[in-house]
Write a structure and sequence with these properties.
Layout (H helix, E strand, L loop, with lengths): L1 H8 L2 H21 L13 H25 L6
Helix pairs in contact: 1-2, 1-3, 2-3
Length: 76
C-alpha cells in the first residue's frame, strides 16, 4: 500500500520508508526461519525499530499528503 501511494504521489520520503519496510520484512523472514537467530525469545531491538518505523511511516504519510495536495488541479 505504501509503495502504491509512493508511486502515486511521487514522494521520495515515502519511497525511502517503503524500502525500510522491505528491509524490515527481510529481517522478520530471517528471524522466522531462524536464519538470523537461533531460538530468539527476547527481541529487545524491537523497542527501537518499531518506534522508528512508526515515526518514519508518519513522516511519509505527511509527505504523501503534501505531494498529493500540491498536484491537485485548480490550485495555483
Amino acid at each position: 500500500m505504501l509503495a502504491a501511494l509512493s508511486l502515486w504521489s511521487g514522494s521520495r520520503t515515502a519511497w525511502v520508508v517503503t524500502a525500510l519496510w522491505v528491509l524490515y520484512l527481510g529481517y522478520e523472514v530471517g528471524i522466522h526461519f531462524e536464519v538470523l537467530c537461533n531460538d530468539c525469545v527476547r527481541r529487545s531491538e524491537m523497542y527501537v525499530v518499531y518506534p522508528l518505523l512508526a515515526l518514519a511511516t508518519a513522516a511519509a504519510a505527511v509527505q504523501i499528503y503534501v505531494h498529493a495536495r500540491s498536484r491537485r488541479p485548480g490550485r495555483g
